[in-house]
Amino acid sequence: MTQFIPSSPQPQVRPASAFKKPAAALALLGTTLMLGACSGNGTVKPPAATQPTVISGMLVPFTASSADTIQEQLTGLSAPIASNGNFDLNLPSTATMNSTYGNLLNSKDDTFGLCTTTNVTAPSGFKSIVFSTLNSMKGTTFVAENVSPLPGGNAVSYKVWWFATVAGTVTVNNTGCLGYGTVNQSLVFKQGWNVMDVTVNGASTTITRAANQTPGRLTWKNKNSVQSLESQALNPYLFNPWAALRK
Fold first, then answer.
1. Which residues contact residue 42 at a Cβ distance below 8 angstroms, ignoring those fewer than 6 apart?
2. Backbone angles phi, psi at 205, to 5 degrees
3. Spatial distance between the Cα atoms of 161 and 242, rounded to a whole number of angstroms
């Protein structure tokens, strides 16, 4: 009798297409994740702005009568004022500030205006300019006063838009600055525009980087309507100490 001997099982060979399936699945997953980061029309959403490109404001008080514009006096940059007092003043790019307005930029030592003693350290090539007040064509000066929280006593707090040619830390220990008194601190700048909060408290001033660098539409008040008119009478450079540099 012939004995039947079963043959050894042969290894099973998977077709090449089977190995392509996991790779295809991973590729599909990556495509899905990319689409999830896009808007409905397939365009990738840009990151949120971290530096200001425009000063948006609402003038208070404002009475619509005839056509009017808001202007930054030193540069001559201007924007129309709407019938409700709103305006949007576009801020020039870094390249434009360095070229068109380069002759208006303040040197390192003049960063905080005209001072009796000056001790400022800054990155190489640092120059700056500050937009602190805006004027209507009708002759009214407006400031972006900080009212929440409202500083105590005779202190006055307001926002400024501060352009810097280069990024870095500026350290100052100045005394006798017209408008600001003593300024002793460090400030971190990004290249381009920076929103700063300025608080003038008698004989000294504190400047801090605003928590919100794109604050949206702010209230700009007639400078004669802000807190502490007595301080203004005694301090003509309260809102624009850099004006003293050009006297």
1. 35
2. -135, 140
3. 13
60-110 pLDDT per residue, tens = 888 877 679 999 999 999 999 999 999 999 999 999 999 999 999 999 999
Helix or strand holding residue 129 (H, E): strand 128-131
- Burial class (CB within 10 angstroms; exposed 0-12, middle 13-18, buried 19+) of 78: middle
Distance CA 63, CA 204 (A): 36
Task: Please name which of 226, 220, 7 lies closest in space to residue 132, comparing C-alpha atoms.
Answer: 220
Q: In sequence order, what DSSP letters do the residues of 6-26 get, joined into one string?
A: PPPPPPPPPPHHHHHHHHHHH
pTM value surpassing 0.85? no
Residue 96 tokens, joined:
């434009």
- For 238: left if phi > 0, alpha if psi spans -120 to 50, otherwise beta; the answer is alpha
